[in-house]
Amino acid sequence: MNPASIPVDLRNPGQVFACLGLTEMTEVLSGPCMMRFNYSSNETECRFELDASEDCIEKAVRFLARCKVVAIAPPRTPGNEPLSAARWQVETVTVVGQFFPGAPPDSPATLPVHLSFGGVHIPVEHWLDDPRRTGRDNVKFWAGAGGYPGAALARDSVSLLSPFDDAALSRIALDPFAFSAPMDSSFRFDWRRDYIPLDAGFSPNDQPSISMVGFPLVELLAAVGLQNARPSRLDPRNKLAYRYNVSNAWLPPCLARAVLGSGVTGFPVRAFRMNLGWPGKENQARCITNAEEE
Questions:
Q1: Tens of pLDDT along the chain (294 residues)?
Q2: Helices 13-29 and 56-66, interaxial angle, to 10°?
Q3: Nearest-5° angle of CA 110, CA 111, CA 112?
Q4: How crowded is the C-beta side of 164, counted as CA atoms within 13 Å?
Q5: Cα dihedral 263/5/158/200 (nearest 10)
Q6: Ranges of each domain in the chain
Q7: SS3 of 220, please?
Q8: Plot region of 11 (φ>0 → left; ψ -120 to 50 → alpha; else → beta)
Q9: Where in the chain does DSSP place strands (E)?
């Protein structure tokens, strides 16, 4: 066994979700795989290992750098205008004669997307989940209602990778969660970019000379990772506290998904509490403030 391996900080929830994203993409791009968080003792900085038939991490990074982001819209209903992300220069395809992955949204802000390249389509649609209908939290931290849509956030992250050639992408794949670039907005999965103005003492949005640096691969891969796995909200009435779990056992994707949110028994598991805050108005956007091991 000679698995691919990259650094991961277990106290960075976005990086943990991104590891699930790498696993999801590997299963699609390379076939069956196994994954684990290779920690010992109580360390929180460790290696994420992914065992597949080929260099799966580099292949996933190249896919994201070359893919096209396409918004998926539900069929038009009589009397309503079709939903589209074209205003934000994102191609929109309307579903015809096939299943739309959720209740039709009220605005283009939450249209699901496909990351498409070489005939392969990776869906990103977790934010469509309505807990009242599916029982699953949609883990949507960005606001976007009637504003900048998820499709544009995904497209912006992809555009930060697309200028790199294959040699540069190979280097990035050695430590993909360290790849950074100025980002005006994001899915808010990586706390290294986010802030709460009251805690910071000022708002960078009011300072034109300041550019916030984000981590586009963490954002994209975390969005993919939440397609089939979710952290658990500790209290349905509290939107600011979640729990996620990791294991150092070798697991196939189906069990890795279950461990993240439920801490399935039978495997060694470590649990982390993810705390969030309101960077603006309450009940709008949220950002991760810290994570601590339970």
A1: 578 999 999 999 999 999 999 999 999 999 999 999 999 888 999 999 999 987 899 999 999 999 999 999 998 776 677 899 999 999 999 988 778 888 888 889 999 999 999 999 999 999 998 887 777 899 999 986 557 999 999 999 999 999 999 999 999 999 999 999 999 889 999 999 886 766 655 566 666 666 778 999 999 999 999 999 999 999 989 999 999 999 999 999 999 999 999 877 788 999 999 999 998 889 889 999 999 999
A2: 90
A3: 110
A4: 20
A5: 60
A6: 4-293
A7: helix
A8: alpha
A9: 4-9, 34-38, 45-51, 68-73, 92-94, 113-117, 120-124, 181-182, 213-214, 232-235, 238-246, 270-277, 287-293
- Which DSSP category does 251 fall into? B
Say which residue the tokens 């069929």 belong to. 75
Alpha helix positions (H), 30-138: 56-66, 131-134
The pTM for the full model equals 0.94
Tokens representing residue 35 in the block: 């994954």
| Angstrom distance (rounded) from CA 94 to CA 78 | 15
Q: Which of 116, 108, 288, 275 is nearest to 186 (CA)?
A: 288
Chain position carrying tokens 């009251």? 198
Residue with tokens 């990776």: 122
CB 34 within 8 A of CB 250: yes
Contact between 34 and 252 (Cβ < 8 Å): yes
Read off the tokens for 181.
């670039």
Give which of 191, 226, 222, 172 is closest to 18, Cα–Cα. Answer: 222
